[in-house]
Design goal:
Blueprint (H helix, E strand, L loop, with lengths): L5 H13 L12 H7 L5 E5 L5 H8 L3 E5 L3 H10 L7 E2 L20 E5 L7 H13 L15 E9 L20 H8 L5 E8 L3 H4 L1 E9 L1
Parallel strand pairs: 1-2, 1-4, 2-3, 4-5
Antiparallel strand pairs: 5-7, 6-7
């Protein structure tokens, strides 16, 4: 999520409070995608880690997982539910992500995951956000781009029920539908290409949302 938008930030503050009595499902839709793309032992960064479910799932699956999340309340909720994430969650938001784990992974990560986050980034910040994700990955010998074998995993929600008003969803969050093709085009100059893609309408009738999942490699 983008912590620079007060209404979006306020939603996640309230959502963290709600999780005390209404925990998220333990099922992670992203975990099978991550496991298919990265071997055990790989170092992976989850950007927009929320309440920590995916980072915890990746750790349990044998990955060396870390996460960044701009909501202090969400990070606190993650540590209550998943104590093993202590030291593995830090503050960070797109597009100005920086290198929040430079001390832990100075050479960069093998993979970066960004699920249900980019919709909170406006079109004007999309290119910079994707470049920030790419910058967290291991670099090639000349340092100009991500190294061969690194992977970027994205889950993009597409709101189809017509409820978006002035760039916000029914919860008041900043929300922009980013077409997978547009994302692919912006990542191509950075050396990435799509190697796997899926579309899910599993929650379309309930939420009006179609989900696109992309696996991109250098």
């Amino acid at each position: 999520m983008d912590a620079k938008d007060p209404r979006t930030d306020d939603f996640y503050r309230r959502y963290a409070d709600r999780l005390v009595t209404q925990p998220e499902s333990t099922r992670s839709a992203m975990l099978p995608v991550v496991e298919a793309a990265l071997p055990r032992g790989s170092r992976v960064l989850d950007v927009g880690a929320g309440a920590g479910r995916d980072v915890a799932g990746m750790l349990a699956a044998g990955l060396d997982a870390y996460g960044v999340e701009p909501s202090e309340e969400m990070r606190a909720r993650a540590l209550v539910q998943f104590p093993a994430l202590a030291g593995r969650l830090r503050d960070g938001a797109l597009p100005g992500l920086g290198q929040p784990f430079a001390d832990v992974a100075p050479e960069g990560f093998d993979g970066v995951v960004c699920s249900a986050v980019l919709m909170h980034v406006g079109e004007d910040d999309l290119q910079a956000s994707l470049a920030a994700l790419a910058s967290t990955l291991r670099r090639s010998d000349d340092g100009r781009r991500a190294a061969d074998g690194t992977v970027m995993l994205l889950a993009l929600p597409e709101q189809l029920d017509g409820t978006l008003v002035e760039g916000r969803d029914v919860d008041g969050r900043r929300f922009t539908n980013h077409a997978p093709k547009r994302v692919e085009e912006l990542l191509a100059p950075l050396g990435f290409s799509v190697v796997a893609q899926s579309v899910s309408d599993a929650v379309l009738s309930a939420t009006g949302t179609r989900w696109h999942t992309l696996t991109l490699r250098v």
